[in-house]
Write a structure and sequence with these properties.
The chain has about 170 residues and is α+β, with helices and mostly antiparallel strands. Helix content is about 25%, strand content about 25%. The termini are far apart.
Length: about 170
């Protein structure tokens, strides 16, 4: 920290007048929520959601599971008008168990996410915004993108329309 910053009256007030501090979440109305679900998304429906405007959302980030891509973790990152999606890696459930790390800390960290049906596959996206961000509307829209099945059925989902760019690596 520079000496000039330390002598600025607002710095001093922030440091020594903490009881008067108004958190940015209150001052600017910033709030967040995390969308979590186990079932996969139908790709075309999720793409339509990604292509719509999300009033009040200033940032969204997380990972998702497309029904047509049962082995891959999708990543979404949105800031302002820019939205990016891509492949993040593999779900541990798609990796043969003998290739998992032989480490108790790994299993301790992974265990809360292991579901008997879905494995570690899941939707987990955080949305950050302010009014008019409508959490209920976003949740309803994302819920409508989920496959209706309550069991793991990748063979049934292979034929679903998938408008996302390929995540396969190409050799030049």
């Amino acid at each position: 920290m520079t000496a000039s910053a330390e002598t600025h009256p607002l710095w001093y007030k922030e440091l020594h007048g903490f009881s008067d501090h108004v958190p940015e979440t209150e001052e600017y109305g910033i709030r967040s929520f995390v969308y979590r679900e186990k079932r996969p998304f139908e790709p075309a429906k999720l793409q339509r959601f990604f292509d719509t405007g999300w009033p009040g959302v200033v940032r969204a980030k997380g990972f998702f599971w497309l029904a047509t891509r049962p082995h891959h973790v999708g990543e979404v990152s949105q800031a302002g008008a820019l939205l990016r999606t891509g492949k993040m890696g593999l779900w541990w459930s798609s990796v043969p168990r003998e290739r998992w790390p032989d480490d108790e800390r790994f299993m301790t960290a992974l265990s809360p996410y292991l579901d008997p049906i879905w494995g570690d596959r899941r939707q987990e996206i955080v949305f950050i915004g302010s009014d008019p961000m409508d959490e209920d509307w976003i949740r309803r829209q994302l819920d409508a993108c989920l496959v209706p099945e309550e069991t793991f059925a990748p063979e049934k989902w292979r034929g679903l329309p998938d408008t996302f760019a390929s995540w396969e690596e190409r050799v030049a």
